[in-house]
Amino acid sequence: MAEAHQAVGFRPPLTSDAGEVELSAPMLQEIYLSGLRSWKRHLSRFWNDFLTGVFPASPLSWLFLFSAIQLAWFLQLDPSLGLMEKIKELLPDWGGQHHRLRGVLAAALFASCLWGALIFTLHVALRLLLSYHGWLLQPHGAMSSRTKTWLALVRIFSGRHPMLFSYQRSLPRQPVPSVQDTVRKYLESVRPVLSDEDFDWTAALAREFLRLQASLLQWYLQLKSWWASNYVSDWWEEFVYLRSRNSLMDFLYVTPTPVQAARAGNAVHALLLYRHRLNRQEILPTLLMGMRPLCSAQYEKIFNTTRIPGVHKDHIRHLRDSRHVAVFHRGRFFRVGTHSQSGLLSPRALEQQFQRILDDPSPACPHEEHLAALTAAPRDMWAQVRRSLKTQAQEALEAVEGAAFFVSLDSEPAGLTREDPAASLDAYAHALLAGRGHDRWFDKSFSLIVFSNGKLGLSVEHSWADCPISGHMWEFTLATECFQLGYSADGHCKGHPDPSLPQPQRLHWDLPDKIHLSISLALRGAKTLSGNIDCHVFPFSHFGKSFIKRCHLSSDSFIQMALQLAYFRDRGQFCLTYESTMTRLFLEGRTETVRSCTREACNFVRAMEDKEKTDPQCLALFRLAVDKHQALLKAAMSGQGVDRHLFALYIVSQFLHLQSPFLDQVHSEQWQLATSQIPVQQIHLFDVHSYPDYVSSGGGFGPADDHGYGVSYIFMGDDVITFHISSKKSSTRTDSHRLGQHIEDALLDVAALFQEGQRLKCRGLAEKGSEHSRDSLPCHTRGSRAPTTATNF
Prior knowledge:
By secondary structure, this protein is of the alpha+beta class. 45% of the residues lie in helices and 11% in strands. β15 and β16 form a beta hairpin. 46% of the residues are buried.
């Protein structure tokens, strides 16, 4: 995703000779602080950690064990085999009348020790079980007897009714891969995109790295992996995630109400209901394939979180609670309380507050309208402006940064229109991803955007969590506000207004004159960035997940191979491809990169462009490419990927002032195709088959390279795939609409390799019209292939 463009923005001074470095005080201090941050996170949620610490037992299980011991003692049985008598001897002698109290205390201490030992045994057993990844490596749809036994044991040791953070203490830590294996996989991944001369040069750098520096850097990583919760995630967050954003869209075909304030009221109420369930750990932990728990640490910072700018680096500020939201409308900022003395405001009361803001005729103060552009400006500029704000502006800033989240009430409509569906979807995606440059507070964990026609969207800051987490929240929000809260016949929220509520508080900034120039510069830069993004969204409806499953293939691998074919037709060459996958099988795991442009994928693409190759030949190569992609995906998920390990080695080299040409080469790579699948149906609050139109159309992100593409895709139900493509208008090499056409053609061509896909391709070409067909032969002819129309660069 956009993270691919960011890797490490800091570069400490480098020494010319690194071979003599042995121990580094700054490096050891950084490892110590990483571990300290991990322990602070655990201590900050003591009660939750207590509940999860005793899972799969419960506090009531201690009472049951204590009662059983007391009953046995009453029946003159000693389950402790004499240990309780020895405990009684160690307790103070309070006299004869307290003899029974000493017995009760001894039984309680013995019960606590036995209970703790049992829990520790369960934790160790569950952690060992969760460290097994053999189930990932098995063929799709097959399960060996060993895996069945493993799954049964996991279910036994997992207990009943787990809470959101119940598995955290049992998750294994992310392993540090072998540096030799990582370098070997890296060289294998770049071979298809490098010339023979460039590859030989890179391989020589790699051999020098393994000989001179690798063992020292690896030693520090091993040390950190033993001390901190995760050897790479905190660095990835600090140096990469604090600069990335993505967006999520509303229902594609449905708008539950055209009343802007009503949609905002229900959406805000639903989001705060999600926060309430989150605080009470009532959200079930995510189980991969229904059996393997994933890390839930990222859920902690969804709400009440802001990215604070710094001169050298940003940091995350998270509050335990917030009882208001910050609202932006027509250049003005408001503080809207979300709770009364009786609890969370009803959706109708929130609608009333938002309608008051919409009806407020007061104008924006000078430069207030464009103030939020500073959150898109260079971070050092924004940090300096913050320090120059006066008291009143500081109070207004605190109201925004201390809000549960940010709400933007836009004055323009958005969403799919019948008159021009393609252009309207593209404009909708662009409005969510970039806005106008000054109408989003990009530092908040997420901004809820409500358009004038009732359409919704989400702009998400990327540092606090990855897309599956925000997607989980967004699915809950859309399902709750539409199916549980609902709307009245006239489009308003259900219930009654509350006239006793105070008016929303208008925030006043009183900006000093010296920062007006900074705001103007930030606005100019934000508009330039926003205007340079080319977004294209299109739903591919010729087939979807159900067809791919009938082909007995992975849906994700199918799309990735089609993207390789589409990119080659677009650019006439192969490129490094970044696909984001998760490492949440491990404690505090975030993401890893799947390098989808493999030698097998390139062989398949070349065969598809060779008219001499028959369909069976292409299909055989396609299956090999899919199998290779699946192997890379599973390796990345199980902590054996390439990029996070190389990234962490690079960070260590920077702390050690150790120059490595090989790591510099890796760090300078350009990802001209960044891809990601948006997860869907993580929550089953309604039957998607009964309501096929009520599925989010996913979201997108910006390109990772100035001359590259950002492509995300989401499987909407069984028969539709929605693609979000982004590129930069300033590039003469890219065109989002052109790539979209290539993706559509590539999907139809790949589907035609299968017998059922021949019919789908014929129907697809017929719908597109003969003027768009690039096949010179009839669609039923075996071996026909669409030639590339790209220019070589």
